[in-house]
Amino acid sequence: MAINTDNVRLVFGLKLKQLRLDKGLSLSELSQKSGLSISYINEIEKGKKYPKSDKIIALAAAMDVEYDTLVSLKLSKRLEPISDLLSSNVLTELPLELFGIDPANLLEILSDAPAKISAFVGTLIEIARNYNMSIEKFYFSALRTYQEMHDNYFEEIEEDAERFLIEHRVDPNKILNENDLAEILITKYNYSIVNINEKANPEFSSVRSLTITNVNGNRLLMNTHLSSVQRAFIFGREIGYLYLGLKNRLHTTALVEAESFEQLLNNFKASYFSSAIIIKRSLLVPAVAGVFEQKRWRPEQLIELIHQFNTTPESFCYRLSNILPRYFGINQIFFSRFNNFVGQNIFDMTKEMHISRKHYPHTVKDEHYCRRWVALTILNDLGDIIRNKQQPGILCKAQKSTYLDTRDEYLVISFAQPMSPTPNLNVSVSMGIYLDAPTREKLQFLDDPLLVAREVNQTCERCSLFDCKERIAAPTILQKRHKNEELRKALKRMIN
């Protein structure tokens, strides 16, 4: 098996401990038979030390096994899941310290109860295989967890962004645009910015940007279909890579290029930096406070802010997820993005993030999301506009959504617009705010009668609202759950 050299000690320790237990030997007995101290053998079994050849010979003789058997990297069948884990890139690529995990402690846990941990790891691997979870998806999940752990707010990057603005003498009230950022890339970082030639390279037609760095200089190739605000964000992200000194990077906007967790993390940091220099917190916080103080729900006010900050609905919502927990004490929020092709009743959740708790909605496999969600109804509205040959702009809708099963209530604000450069593809981005008592006091427009309130659920398959006009699938999971519950009750009556 291919295994990182840092884990060879652990493999040896796991094998030694398993062989010792199979032979029925205690640490003390193995110590007496091998002539090695108990503490030294314990260090070996925990993967902290790797013995020299003479000591391996002594251990092999004490347990009556061949030297080659002991030093082989092959683990027993019971430990195969741990072998799979060690052979993967997870432990080497994922910076465990970001999650407050000491890698040495993790290895010690693996060595303390290898059989039990192996069974647990095997279960996780089986779940991942059943859901076709690649290592890239695992990295994306880890990144989302990292963001959620920090309420998606990173003070160091905020300060770096403000330092950059001061160094470049940007007026505190100025909103940077694509020309401002392009000039910095060209003059300070010696970049050339050119368009992607789709005829010569049709495979890059769906790629928004491509960065080429070599001894001849830096080139940033841009998709010709991008809007000005999209170009500004990409320029800002490129500056983020350079200003923050992020070497291990993605070179395209196609995230399938990601080869490691560090690349995804650096892409996130550079993107955060771009949002912070374009949508300055010093201007955004008072603007949002003004919206919250309004007694009426005014969607046009939010659309005006998006244009004012020279950004997109997605970047705006994502930036809100940065500042709401820190500056407004609103930390029960979620962010989601859905894609939909005009005329199709299929909605794909392509991004989600949950801060402080696992909110609904979240990604589900092979089920139909509730068609009452404003994130989906706004896409239908946008599709109608496009089919009627009208010029689509940014749509904004809000809804107070109460979940049938839990009675949890959310304010969900959704934006929708066509997704350039893909034809007939629309996207909606939504910010959901859990409406507890303190949050209700901060949102003055909640009692506006124009703000729609609806009962919703997770998916049609789990919903008990049988007279729902929007239902497009039978409540199969709910029915199965009820059937199993009746069976449990019947069994209980029979036993009693």
Account of the protein in words:
The protein has 496 residues and is an alpha+beta fold. It folds into 3 domains: 5-133, 434 Repressor (Amino-terminal Domain), CATH 1.10.260; 155-278, no CATH class; 313-482, no CATH class. It has 20 helices and 9 strands. The strands form 2 sheets. The chain has a 6-stranded mixed β-sheet with strand order 5-4-8-7-6-9, sandwiched between helices. A 3-stranded mixed β-sheet has the order 1-3-2. Strand 7 (409-418) and strand 8 form a beta hairpin. Helix 6 crosses helix 9, helix 12 packs parallel to helix 13 (228-243) and helix 15 (281-292) packs across helix 17 (313-328). The longest helix has 20 residues, at 476-495. The model has no long low-confidence stretch (mean pLDDT 85).
- The portion of residues forming beta strands comes to 5-15%
From N to C, what is the helix and strand string? HHHHHHHHHHHHEEEHHHHHEEHEEEHEH
Provide the domain count.
3
Coarse morphology: globular
Radius of gyration: 28 Å
Alpha-carbon distance between the two ends? 54 Å
What structural class is derived from the secondary structure elements? Answer: alpha+beta
Strand tally: 9
- Multimeric organization: single chain
Low-confidence stretches are none
Describe the main β-sheet briefly. 6 strands, mixed
Give the helix/strand layout.
Blueprint: H1 8-22, H2 27-34, H3 38-45, H4 53-62, H5 67-71, H6 80-87, H7 90-93, H8 103-112, H9 114-130, H10 135-149, H11 155-167, H12 178-187, E1 191-195, E2 209-214, E3 217-222, H13 228-243, H14 261-278, H15 281-292, H16 299-308, H17 313-328, E4 333-341, E5 348-355, H18 374-387, E6 395-403, E7 409-418, E8 425-434, H19 437-442, E9 452-456, H20 476-495
Parallel strand pairs: 1-3, 6-9
Antiparallel strand pairs: 2-3, 4-5, 4-8, 6-7, 7-8
